[in-house]
Amino acid sequence: MAGKSENKTKATEVSVDSFLAGVSDAKKRADADTLVALMKRITKKEAQMWGPSIIGFDSYHYRYDSGREGDMCALGFSPRKDSLSVYVLDGLDNYGDALAKLGPHKIGKSCLYIKRLSDVDMKVLEKILRDSYKYVKQNLDVK
Questions:
Q1: How many CB atoms lie within 10 A of CB 22?
Q2: Measured at the alpha carbon of residue 24, what is the angle toward residues 22 and 25, in degrees to the nearest 5?
Q3: pLDDT score of 122
Q4: Hey, which of 42, 76, 120, 131 would disulfide with 103, CB 3.0 to 4.6 Å?
Q5: Which residue did the predictor score with more confidence, 121 or 6?
Q6: pTM strictly above 0.85
């Protein structure tokens, strides 16, 4: 694979607790703690930092048609400045009904943006995350 760029988002040895201690917004930090507990319960795995700001659980190996390949967390999120970015790795196309019930959010291709967890239905969010993780486990090369 000479000449191919190296993947920027990799599992690191940075402490999740240390990273979360640096989140200055107390409500966002509390929301992040809630998501860590939820994702740990779903995956039965410990949290790990991926790159400088993604908290991830479990991992899978991907390989694109271009030949690029690497590893990524199977479930994860990042407490960004404006919102919590929750990664739904099977995309959000299949979650229309659930998203309609979730509460205020924005979406990207595989990213769910939530301002505060108190604004959304946590049972709906948990179902989305469980279904996404199940998809990743069944369809991708989970380590």
A1: 9
A2: 135
A3: 98
A4: 120
A5: 121
A6: yes
**Bridge partners for 87 per DSSP:** 76, 111
* Helix boundaries (H) for 11-72: 16-21, 26-43
Q: What are phi and psi of 36, to 5 degrees?
A: -60, -50
Determine contact, residues 43/73, Cβ cutoff 8 Å.
Answer: no
| pLDDT value at residue 116 | 96
Backbone angles phi, psi at 16, to 5 degrees: -60, -45
Q: Residue 50 region, left (φ>0) first, then alpha (ψ -120 to 50), else beta?
A: beta
Domain boundaries, the chain: 16-138
Region for 35 from its dihedrals, namely left if φ exceeds 0, alpha if ψ lies in -120 to 50, beta otherwise: alpha
DSSP per-residue string spanning 64-131: -TTS-EEEEEEEEEEE-SSSEEEE-TT-SGGGHHHHHHH-S-EE-SSEEEES-GGGS-HHHHHHHHHH
Q: How many CA atoms lie within 13 A of 37 on its CB side?
A: 7
Question: Spelled out in words, what is the top-level CATH class assigned to the domain 16-138?
Answer: alpha beta
Q: State the residue for tokens 């069944």.
A: 138
Residue 75 token pair: 């479930």
Residues in the chain: 143
